[in-house]
Design brief:
With 327 residues, this protein is α+β, with helices and mostly antiparallel strands. The chain has helices at residues 72-87, 117-120, 128-147, 200-203, 210-226, 236-245, 251-254, 260-269, 281-291; strands at 29-30, 34-42, 46-53, 58-65, 96-100, 106-109, 150-151, 160-162, 168-170, 177-178, 292-294, 299-305, 308-313, 320-322. It folds into 2 domains: 29-109, 2-Layer Sandwich (Phosphorylase Kinase, domain 1), CATH 3.30.200.20; 117-322, Orthogonal Bundle (Transferase(Phosphotransferase), domain 1). Strand 2 (34-42) and strand 3 (46-53) form a beta hairpin. Helix 3 (128-147) runs antiparallel to helix 5 and helix 3 (128-147) packs antiparallel against helix 9. The model is unreliable at 1-17 and 294-327 (pLDDT under 50).
Length: 327
Amino acid sequence: MNRRAETETVDVFCGSLSATVAIMPPGTRLGSRHTIRNVLGIGGSSVVYSADDSTTSCAVAVKVLRPDRSTEAALVRFRNEAAVARAVDCPHLVRVFDYAEGPPTYLTMELAHEGSLRHALKDGPLPVGRAIEIAGQVLRALSALHGRCIVHCDVKPGNILLDAGGRVLLGDFGLARQTNACTATDGNGSLFGTLEYLAPEQALGGSVDARTDLYSLGIVLFEMLTGLVPHCRASSLGTLLAHIQEPARNVRNLRPAIPRWLSALIACLLEKQPRKRYVSANAVLHDIARRCAHYGPAVDIVQDRGRSAHIVGTGRPLTWRFEPEMP
């Protein structure tokens, strides 16, 4: 296993670009309201900027379709992202405010002030408590989407955004798919998503449902705790086959301080067959709640000792305390 960023999104904090991308300089006006400030990130089909909204006097994020990637498929993704964001209301989903087709084609959305989880992982694994906290908020976002029969299909660190006060947001709904009465939707043999975070059914171009997102979140949780993704091979085909055929390593082999119950939870999320995974985001949240409890307003889990994480005092609100390990 290797430490690396996901293949589709290039984060300006974590890596170099593989191709020259046209960047709007600071001060560029978009429409009648928005003034570009600086680049936040560069993706496979878009560039994300921070900008000032002259109407609200607030900072926003602006996602602009790259001219060199302005295809009908890319336009469909942009329209889909705006539609999904407006259809589902949840404090852990990025809000989309405006959408305009150009050139340039862009949408404006809520700005997360602390960047992406991909940026946060640049220095390695997170404290166990913080990883659980982030996963819990992403699970709430997924629960809201799945409650509207929408599968995100691209859960990864680059699409998980960190805001002030510890709030976590899930964004980028361009690949989201509407399912039929919350049952699996046909993949039509197409491959979509980000290679390192693909569920086996995605890798096979098969049907997807809520459990597809849970597999991807399992990989994100694995990475938050170890600094590695479970399946990363020298070739794209090798990575796809690993998702389909190879079991993920036990996270405790890489970080023995991780509680056994959390290792078992990740293993369940990463089951190859969807029927063996958790049935819903709420089921995962329930399992976490059985093992963790709100401990009060001034504690956090920030260090590992022996086999379990321990609480030390902090000035921040939150988070979790672990139940004792079973013998």
